[in-house]
Structure formats: structure tokens, C-alpha cells
Design goal:
Elements (H helix, E strand, L loop, with lengths): L7 E5 L6 E5 L4 E5 L2 H7 L4 E7 L3 E4 L3 E6 L5 E6 L6 E5 L1 H4 L3 E5 L13 E3 L15 E2 L4
Parallel strand pairs: 3-10, 10-11
Antiparallel strand pairs: 1-2, 2-5, 3-4, 4-9, 6-7, 7-8, 8-9
Length: 140
């Protein structure tokens, strides 16, 4: 269920050692099919919610893996060191704009997620069918 005030949502890792509250609704929701997101998620896609950095409060310790994708850009993948759940992906260019990226699968309430952008579609698994409408980018 959504938080009562509908202005925040909470989430966290699988074991509960890391929790967060974020301003809601998100600035945008996207999927990423890049090979690195697939490996990190252990799935065919990663669902990303871009939220204002000023509205994100995290408790618990996160470990950081500095990743470099095909674009050459850096992604700081933050995860729970206890259970391994990916929680946040910090991207320097977005952080400079006051935006952080939460892994939407870690939200307690997944309702209302409607990705409008789809990144790295050229890396999507061949059986993946993306919804009609949203912006699709072969790369990012």
C-alpha cells in the first residue's frame, strides 16, 4: 500500500537492513536493458525511478560498486552488503541535477509504476516486448 500521505514512498533491501523514504511521485520511471543492469538485477531489465535527491532519506549501510558501461559513463551501484539487494544507482550527471535513481523493485508499494522511457533496448533479451508508447533508446 502507498503511504497514507501519498507524498512519499518507502522501500528497502531484502533483509531490511537498508530502508529509505523518497518523495513521490517520481520525476520519471524508466527501464534499462543494458548488460550491466541485467547482471546486477539477475533479470532481463532494471526498473528505475528517478527521484529528487533532496527527498530521499536512506538508513542503513550501502556498499558501492563503481561500474562503467558501454557509454563510458560511471554508475555507482549501491547495494546492501548483507543481502546483496541493489537499492540505488547514482549517476554523476543526474546527481549534479539533484536526481538519484532508486531500483523500483525495492519499493514497498509498486503500484502506479509506468515506465515512459526504455534505455539500451539494443541489449534487450530477444523475447522482451516493450510496451507501446514510451521513448525507446537503443543506447543511452
Amino acid at each position: 500500500m502507498a503511504d497514507d500521505d501519498q507524498q512519499t514512498r518507502s522501500g528497502g533491501c531484502l533483509c531490511g537492513a537498508v530502508r529509505y523514504t523518497t518523495a513521490w511521485p517520481p520525476l520519471s520511471v524508466a527501464t534499462c536493458q543494458c548488460a550491466n543492469c541485467q547482471k546486477q538485477a539477475g533479470s532481463s531489465i532494471s526498473i528505475l525511478a528517478m527521484v529528487p535527491a533532496s527527498g530521499l532519506e536512506v538508513t542503513g549501510d550501502l556498499k558501492t560498486y563503481e561500474d562503467h558501461g558501454d557509454s563510458g559513463g560511471t554508475v555507482f551501484r549501491k547495494f546492501c552488503p548483507n543481502c546483496g539487494s541493489p537499492v540505488i544507482s547514482d549517476i554523476p550527471g543526474l546527481e549534479a541535477q539533484g536526481v538519484r535513481v532508486i531500483k523500483a523493485g525495492t519499493l514497498d508499494d509498486h503500484s502506479g509504476l509506468n515506465p515512459q522511457m526504455h534505455f539500451w533496448t539494443d541489449s534487450a533479451q530477444d523475447w522482451m516486448v516493450l510496451p507501446e508508447g514510451g521513448l525507446k533508446m537503443e543506447k543511452q
